[in-house]
Specification:
mainly alpha; 2 helices; flat
């Protein structure tokens, strides 16, 4: 992968932390970490979308 993708992944997702996974996925590290990474990526995408359209949404 590219250097920037690796840096962003390490910053936002990091190493697996089972305490952040849904309880039903704690015995399945691949699914638990994948779900956590997806949720964080989705949250960041929504925040970026809101930030980029905030000015347009607030206009009358």
């Amino acid at each position: 992968m590219s250097l920037y993708i690796d840096l962003l992944y390490d910053y936002f997702v990091g190493y697996p932390k089972p305490e952040r996974w849904p309880e039903e996925l704690r015995d399945n590290p691949v699914a638990g970490h994948s779900r956590y990474a997806f949720e964080e990526g989705f949250r960041l995408g929504v925040l970026l979308m809101l930030e980029s359209t905030a000015g347009e949404l607030l206009r009358p």
